[in-house]
Design a protein that fits this description.
The protein is α/β, with parallel strands linked by helices. Helix content is 35%, strand content 22%. The protein binds S-adenosyl-L-homocysteine, iron/sulfur cluster and FE3-S4 cluster (F3S).
């Protein structure tokens, strides 16, 4: 009988992409992926440790499934992802129901781990980093996402060579490894044959991408974008996350050559205060960031920017915080994320006193979120009566007779269309703004 596997995923898009890979390996070895814990044989938890709260979710969940394992001791529990690398054997100590601990760089061995455990009944741990590409034959069957049927994520690099004072990612994902361009291109070609027309290239620092072709010629991020843009079925290209310091002039110029790259850029600044940026070891100043934005806007005047922000970093005072607020109003960041600072083990800032009270952190979080909400209204109003390129996604369940699609800055637009338009880029004039939804007519 085929065994049933339940997979739960926390964390970033890369982690979700990794879970799809795990599903792929299991599927091709005759396991069945299920969505409920009922009668399950194997439970796989793909974890995130970027903040303490994310990490806690694993242990809450393990607690929740304790009884399931008590009732049926044959169930195998495997923990993967970033908490595995960070906590290693400690995971077994904290929860005795865990049988296998694996990491983001060993997930391709998942089928072997399970078979070995079934045979020996001995706990397995393997969270090693590899320096080779782990997923060269990743098929696309599982690389789809439920919400967006014309969009796929494609990992192009993994890991991080930077060392921001607060961040655990370099420890959990290891040094940067870039995939071979040929493998990325063949994955995207296959995706486009399946009807995918938009790709979102993933990496902890996508613009640090640095690889070589099989003939030893170098391939940087701009080279890769040029190659991807030549794939006929691909109509839109996005990428997350870029780092300001890897945003070269060559990359900015690439925007003028490739229209398929969207007018929307997630470029995290983290704070609007130079003092805090220095303590965070981000290695740039607000002035540098603003100049970078100016250069990009010179090439793409309609570019909209998004960012991540951390509030309550040690010593962040009211003046520092005000500078962040001012910057958010000035750049008009859209679709951005704010996080409460969370000290992570072994990071540089974990040695600093976490001196901002939780109340103050929450106040700052809300304050930024309110400002970001105003920014999003600003952009929605600015879009009203404009013409937008929209990638047609699906027929709407909510609005009878309407289709919907996404703009370059990821806003949903409803319009009267037909099924021939699915997966196509169309021009839509926005005629109505209702609550947070846009309505338009096909041009
Ligand atoms: N490589 C990306 C970020 C990856 S982590 C970059 O440099 O922009 C995603 C986001 O989590 C970060 O941008 C940061 O805002 C947030 N983050 C990382 N570590 C954190 C911590 N210790 N506490 C709170 N937020 C954190
Ligand atoms: Fe973390 Fe900084 Fe690397 Fe981003 S660049 S993953 S924030 S260390
Ligand atoms: Fe979390 Fe690891 Fe992604 S820490 S944010 S799952 S890289």
């Amino acid at each position: 009988m085929h065994k049933k596997v339940y997979i739960k995923t926390w964390g970033c898009q890369m982690n979700h992409y990794d879970s799809n890979k795990i599903k792929f390996y299991l599927h091709y070895n005759n396991y069945i992926i299920v969505n409920s814990l009922l009668d399950v044989n194997i439970i796989i938890l793909n974890t995130c440790s970027v903040r303490q709260k994310a990490q806690d979710k694993l242990f809450f969940f393990l607690d929740r499934i304790k009884d399931i394992k008590k009732k049926n001791n044959d169930i195998i529990v495997a923990v993967g992802g970033c908490v595995s690398v960070q906590e290693k054997e400690n995971i077994f100590l904290r929860s005795n129901i865990v049988d296998i601990v694996f990491g983001p760089q060993t997930l391709h061995k998942i089928v072997d781990f399970i078979s070995k455990f079934e045979k020996d009944k001995k706990k397995i741990i393997d969270v090693e980093f590899s320096n080779i590409e782990k997923d060269k034959d990743f098929s696309i069957d599982f690389n789809t996402n439920l919400n967006r049927r014309s969009l796929s994520y494609v990992s192009i690099m993994e890991g991080c060579n930077k060392c921001c004072a607060y961040c655990i990612v370099p420890f959990t994902r290891g040094k940067e490894i870039s995939r071979l361009p040929e493998n990325i291109i063949s994955e995207i070609c296959r995706l486009s044959l399946y009807g995918i027309s938009e790709v979102n290239l993933l990496g902890q620092n996508v613009n640090a991408y640095c690889s070589v072709f099989k003939n030893n010629k170098k391939c940087n991020f701009s080279d890769l974008l040029k190659l991807i843009s030549k794939i006929k079925g691909i109509k839109r290209i996005r990428f997350t996350t870029s780092h300001p310091n890897n945003f070269t002039d060559e990359l900015i110029n690439t925007y003028s050559k490739i229209n398929k790259i969207v007018n929307f850029l997630h470029l995290p600044i983290q704070s609007g205060s130079n003092r805090i940026l220095k303590l965070m070891r981000r290695n740039y100043t607000v002035k540098y960031y603003k100049e970078l934005i100016k250069k990009i806007l010179f090439i793409r005047k309609n570019m909209i920017f998004a960012s991540d922000f951390i509030v309550g970093f040690p010593t962040e005072n009211k003046k520092d915080f005000k500078l962040t607020l001012d910057l958010i109003s000035e750049i008009k960041f859209d679709n951005s994320f704010v996080f409460i600072y969370s000290p992570r083990p072994n990071t540089i800032s974990s040695k600093m006193l976490d001196n901002i009270s939780i109340e103050e952190k929450k106040y700052r979080l809300n304050k930024i979120n309110n400002l970001l909400y105003l920014n999003s209204i600003y952009w929605l109003n600015k879009m009203l009566y404009s013409t937008q390129t929209v990638l047609v996604e699906n027929i709407s369940n909510k609005n009878l007779g309407f289709y919907y699609g996404y703009t370059e800055n990821n806003k949903i637009i409803y319009f009267k269309g037909n099924k021939e338009l699915l997966g196509q880029l169309v021009n839509i004039k926005i005629i109505k703004l209702y609550k947070n939804s846009l309505y338009g007519t096909l041009i």
